[in-house]
Amino acid sequence: MKANVRTILKMRSVTSLLFVLVLFLLVGLVNPDFLKPSNLLLTINSSVVFTLLSVGIAFPIITGEIDVSVGAVMGLSAAVSATMIRDGQPWVLAVVASILIGIACGYFNGFGLMYLGIPSIIITLGTNGIVRGLIYVYTDGKWVENLPFEYKCLSQATTLGISNFYLVAILIAIVGTLIIRKSKAGKYYYAVGDNISGSVLIGIPVKKTKISAFVLSSVFASLAGLVYVSRIGFVTPTAGMGYEMKAIAACVLGGVSLSGGVGTLIGASLGAIIMSSVGRILVFLKFSSDYDGTITGILLISIVVVDALIQKYNAEKTRRIRLLAKTSEGGASNEKSY
Q1: pTM reported for the whole predicted model
Q2: Percent helix, strand, coil in the chain (nearest 5)?
Q3: Domain assignments of the chain as residue spans, ordered by start
Q4: For 212-242, how does the pLDDT look when each residue is reduced to its tens digit (9 = 90+)?
């Protein structure tokens, strides 16, 4: 069973990478300009916000839950940090404030799920509404503008043409994947998502694991908000709206199963590249970018259906193996009786 899970994880991550390569090659065949290094770098660099969101939201999904509040948390963190930076507050304080917002929102979601018994889709949907309201109150429904030039320049820093923000995000995804797959505490996320009843029986701290998953999800959303402010240079009251759907789609497209227990942060980051490049691909294929939302919805439904089929196939395969094992044991017992 353990080897089977490892095989699935490996296959899904590799499949995600191959999907990115094939997709880019196909678009390149239609419009060769898409494969120009400058455009590929721009496509990758523009995915940094979705990469952070997808890596964060992968934690609750791996534990078998869902978080639809990350877009709002990102928006609030962006609004608060942008206001503080604009008003001359130290950048460090703005970063700390954003992270604290993430911790508070994540703990609220986790507490509601584990101690109040509210389903994750409901508690995070409620948090989404509350936080959206707070954004409008905090900004008075106005844009946060006139940020220092130095802060906006942070997103322009690159190494070999790749955004330093993106390099840090990928490094976090790689290190995070190694930690949750190799460390004892990290494996708790997979165990809880795969079999919560079994996890309770063997003493895994299910409550702490799920709450920490939501805290990590919201903290990554806060970090995405900080990067968003630097890249865009201003914040609107609707900042981050709808981003949670793309982040969820990116995770599933990257091999993170909505059923829980399967997936990697690296896979989620690869899915983020695909989802963030949809708009650019449409432009290069001579379609209106207005179809971005439609394509995202179609992709989300499609990959959820495929994920369900994969889960059904694996469950049926496991059932057959167990049935075969029982049949073999029964035959062996009969032989001994003779």
Answers
A1: 0.88
A2: 80, 0, 20
A3: 2-291
A4: 999 999 999 999 999 999 999 999 999 999 9
